[in-house]
Amino acid sequence: MIKLLFTLLLLLPDVPSALADVVTKCDSPQGYSYFIPGSRVHKKDEGWVQDGISNGSYLVTRDADGQYDIIFTDAVNRTISSREDGGKIIVISESDKQLVLVVAYPEMNVETWYFRINQSGVGELTVSQARYGKEAIINKHSLFKAICSK
Q1: Are 25 and 146 in contact (CB under 8 A)?
Q2: Which end of the chain is more exposed for a tag (fewer CB within 10 A), N or C?
Q3: Which residues contact 26 (CB under 8 A, 6 or more apart)?
Q4: Among candidate residues 119, 123, 130, the one with its CA nearest the CA of residue 145
Q5: What is the pTM of this model?
Q6: Mean pLDDT for the stretch of residues 23-29
Q7: Helix or strand or coil: residue 105?
Q8: In whole angstroms, what is the distance from residue 28 CA to residue 8 CA?
Q9: Domain range annotation of the chain
């Protein structure tokens, strides 16, 4: 019994992250991307293209310490946490009507998330994403919009 109790106490620091509140969930982001020539984008393919993730989503959570995370599902149905993927999340503005976050991935990606949502998490999102650097498969700058609910 003592061994079981000790094991449970060791796991307690991980409990708050597992108990994060859902702020909102935004589905099927759509918009435009500007593709920049590189190893996978030829000069003739440079420019603006209608883009999006029709089966993708963004789940925004806030843990007991008030730390946000954006958990996204991409075009190939992978689920990835921004924080676990190395993103540093900075709160720019937070109110009853909006939430603005910047997520920076060193030498790879920077994102600006502008949620116009009510206290129930209902509203819309516009997100700007700039992918750049040696680690980026494709260098591009995107602006997407998605409808959010809880």
Answers
A1: no
A2: N
A3: 57, 58, 60, 115, 124, 125, 146, 147, 148
A4: 123
A5: 0.84
A6: 97
A7: strand
A8: 39
A9: 19-149
